[in-house]
Amino acid sequence: MMKNKSDNDQILKGLLDTLVLNVLRDQANYGFGIKEALQMQLGDDADVLKEATLYPLLHRLERRDLLLSYRQPGARGTPRKYYQITSEGLTYLETRTQEWQKVMSLLKRTIF
Amino acid sequence: MKMHKLTRFPSGKFPQQQLTGDPIIDAYLKSLDLELAGNKKVRATALEEVSEHLLDHKAELENQGQDGDAAAQQAVSSFGEVAKHAREQRRGLYQSFFKKFFIMGFVFATLMFFIQGFNNQGLNSEWRIWAVLFVFNFMFFGTAMGYWSTFMLTSVRPDSSSSLPSEPDAELKVYSGRSSKWAAIFMVVVMLILSLLFLAGLFGYGLMQNTWVGASLLLIIIGLRIALAALTAWTRYRLSSSVFSIHSVWGKTEVPRSQITGIRRLPIWMSLIRISMGWQYQLSWRDNNGRQQRKIVAINDEMKHADQLLAALNDDIVNGKSSTLAQG
């Protein structure tokens, strides 16, 4: 069961990268905004991305140059950190999307 | 012992400018700060993002009808345990430190190898002495430079006047502050003096007369390159809605934003070998004849609004690529 949990964690980790990059595909956003956008898209399944996971994920994607961050003065006067997808991030998103589409196609033809 | 406390030099105190005024959120931020690595500015940068998130979440819950304290408590609970967040921040910084330790340690140890090893006495020394010196310099400079660049350096905070230019007349200005310019003047003076010392040594005068010719020539070149690189402090970038302008002591370059095809950060080792002040980026664009042009631009975190400049240029490139992918 522990191995299954670890396998599921790995699958989820790969999926979360794709979900977050997809939110940022069209425009930059800040951490809370990303969470809100995912909540709107995923509805009841939104708890798949916990807040404790979001910022480490964003920082990891930034270290891999899939995202870059910049700060702009926010409504409260303090700087707000925005994340923006890079060319490498866009390419990675396209690749991962195609991989997930292939997985879905295989599952639809076999199990579902 | 908690190792991260060694990185909180010189002050481990909570950065007071991060207080939000909400006691529940402030208590969480203070607990988080105790577990974070880095100096006060590095920790403040991490805390800024967390406090913005908590305040946004609290505001959303208040809009839904919750009272202030309950909203703050829920925002804090939802955000997660302090230990988990702090662990992730420390892990990222430690990974960065070790990477810089190895790269900078190797580069500086090699440089010192030329200075210390290649003099008339050095050529006759045992290889064991060279090896010990190399390892010592590797450890010393790797630790010092890695520590400083990881746990003490942070980007300049944007001021209230800065924003990405979206209106026709708006312009983003990127430039180094006064302290960076003073540091650059110091660097230019010191490097020129060192280069002159080694040059004098080549002709048999001064402190460096016993240095091997090859090492002297190499160090003259490095000294002059560092002095020239320090002039980056006087480089200014301007980004209007249509043009990206680069103003340096060497001249001015203007690139239409619509023709920019890429901006890529060079690897750290390449930046070090090029002896630059800050990160080196390769800017690519197509000129009016359709030919690909390239230019290396130095953008460092000490420049005001540097991150916004990179974001704006990246946005131009991604939007161009996104359109291409959509058409494909």
Give the class of chain B from helix and strand content and strand pairing.
Answer: alpha+beta
Taken as a percent bin, the fraction of beta residues of chain A is 5-15%
Cα Rg of chain B? 24 Å
Q: Any low-confidence stretches of chain B, pLDDT <50, length ≥5?
A: none
* Biggest sheet character of chain B: 5 strands, antiparallel
Count of individual beta strands of chain A: 3
Assembly state: heterodimer
Question: Given the C-alpha coordinates, what overall shape of chain A results?
Answer: globular
- Share of helix among residues of chain B? 55-70%
H-E order of chain A: HEHHEEH
Reading the helices and strands of chain B in chain order gives HHHHHEHHEEEEHEEEH
Q: Could you tell me how far the N terminus lies from the C terminus of chain B, measured between alpha carbons in angstroms? A: 56 Å
Number of helices of chain B: 9
Query: What fraction of the residues of chain B are assigned to beta strands by DSSP?
Result: 5-15%
Please tell me how large the radius of gyration of chain A is: 16 Å
Please give the order of strands in the largest beta sheet of chain A: 1-3-2
Work out the helicity level of chain A.
55-70%
Lateral strand order in the biggest sheet of chain B: 4-3-2-1-8
Q: Can you count the helices of chain A? A: 4
- The biggest beta sheet of chain A, please? 3 strands, antiparallel
